[in-house]
């Protein structure tokens, strides 16, 4: 097997930590000695040992003289756990093969340097593109301190997210809806607006058995979320944040007593300041958010620049209706040159639907 083959195994291991390691990166490691795999490991959960230490603990024999394949540059600082460079050096590893460099200022090339200073051969950039893609969320979060926001919606082929009656269940098929649950499992937060809460009374939980549900974030400028809503009634079970501009302590008290957390932001265009909200959520360790908003919140999120990726579930249906809603509302762009530009989408077939995933480019939209 080649370096690429072993790194592919490490990537597969790393993905096992999805939804559990946040806000830490996903990392996998494989230890090879004389052409045999003697240890495997991944970062299983936040606060627990890193992939390299787990792989060393898994070794079937002494790893001295072995090669270590790891998807991300080994850490070299004390955090929740001791530095992995220390464990690698003490184990007598002779060569380390790295996928991605770590942009964390506490590491950022220092891990590689320390290993080389101790006589360990380091090869960097093996399957770099794949390793970088695995930690797109972590890289954004560690560099900006704000969550990586994915705007998700399902629409028909004529661009409708609901019929003219307002009914939207279901635009997409069961396999696509299950895929959404998997995305909820992987991300730390899920955000919607008070309008969606009032209209649909959603759960905003992950329906995958045994999986952690994301922190629920409701954008509610005036604190109009019904106390009888599911998100409020279950706030002591599933963490729930109400982002608001309302400073009325009497109004806040009922939500606080129900177990909700309240985050106050400045007013921006008559609504919650989404940029300020992202900074506050980032400080709480929330590294990623699935935005499942209505047309108005989607427009505000795009216009504020917080959306980094768009997931469009495209159903082979036509609904029509001049008044039927489209995914993005608001005032809209003044002309095609001032719209929000997306990268060429990655396209996945899920059941009878298509999933289109695009990065959001910096746009010319005037604020």
TrEMBL record:
<comment type="similarity">
    <text>In the N-terminal section; belongs to the cytidine and deoxycytidylate deaminase family.</text>
</comment>
<keyword id="KW-0511">Multifunctional enzyme</keyword>
<comment type="similarity">
    <text>In the C-terminal section; belongs to the HTP reductase family.</text>
</comment>
<dbReference type="GO" id="GO:0008703">
    <property type="term" value="F:5-amino-6-(5-phosphoribosylamino)uracil reductase activity"/>
</dbReference>
<dbReference type="InterPro" id="IPR011549">
    <property type="entry name" value="RibD_C"/>
</dbReference>
<keyword id="KW-0686">Riboflavin biosynthesis</keyword>
<comment type="pathway">
    <text>Cofactor biosynthesis; riboflavin biosynthesis; 5-amino-6-(D-ribitylamino)uracil from GTP: step 3/4.</text>
</comment>
<feature type="domain" description="CMP/dCMP-type deaminase">
    <location>
        <begin position="1"/>
        <end position="123"/>
    </location>
</feature>
<comment type="pathway">
    <text>Cofactor biosynthesis; riboflavin biosynthesis; 5-amino-6-(D-ribitylamino)uracil from GTP: step 2/4.</text>
</comment>
<dbReference type="InterPro" id="IPR002125">
    <property type="entry name" value="CMP_dCMP_dom"/>
</dbReference>
<dbReference type="InterPro" id="IPR050765">
    <property type="entry name" value="Riboflavin_Biosynth_HTPR"/>
</dbReference>
<dbReference type="InterPro" id="IPR002734">
    <property type="entry name" value="RibDG_C"/>
</dbReference>
<dbReference type="InterPro" id="IPR016193">
    <property type="entry name" value="Cytidine_deaminase-like"/>
</dbReference>
<keyword id="KW-0560">Oxidoreductase</keyword>
<keyword id="KW-0521">NADP</keyword>
<dbReference type="GO" id="GO:0008835">
    <property type="term" value="F:diaminohydroxyphosphoribosylaminopyrimidine deaminase activity"/>
</dbReference>
<dbReference type="InterPro" id="IPR024072">
    <property type="entry name" value="DHFR-like_dom_sf"/>
</dbReference>
<dbReference type="InterPro" id="IPR016192">
    <property type="entry name" value="APOBEC/CMP_deaminase_Zn-bd"/>
</dbReference>
<keyword id="KW-0378">Hydrolase</keyword>
<dbReference type="Pfam" id="PF00383">
    <property type="entry name" value="dCMP_cyt_deam_1"/>
</dbReference>
<dbReference type="Pfam" id="PF01872">
    <property type="entry name" value="RibD_C"/>
</dbReference>
<protein>
    <recommendedName>
        <fullName>Riboflavin biosynthesis protein RibD</fullName>
        <ecNumber>3.5.4.26</ecNumber>
        <ecNumber>1.1.1.193</ecNumber>
    </recommendedName>
</protein>
<keyword id="KW-0862">Zinc</keyword>
<keyword id="KW-0479">Metal-binding</keyword>
<dbReference type="InterPro" id="IPR004794">
    <property type="entry name" value="Eubact_RibD"/>
</dbReference>
<comment type="function">
    <text>Converts 2,5-diamino-6-(ribosylamino)-4(3h)-pyrimidinone 5'-phosphate into 5-amino-6-(ribosylamino)-2,4(1h,3h)-pyrimidinedione 5'-phosphate.</text>
</comment>
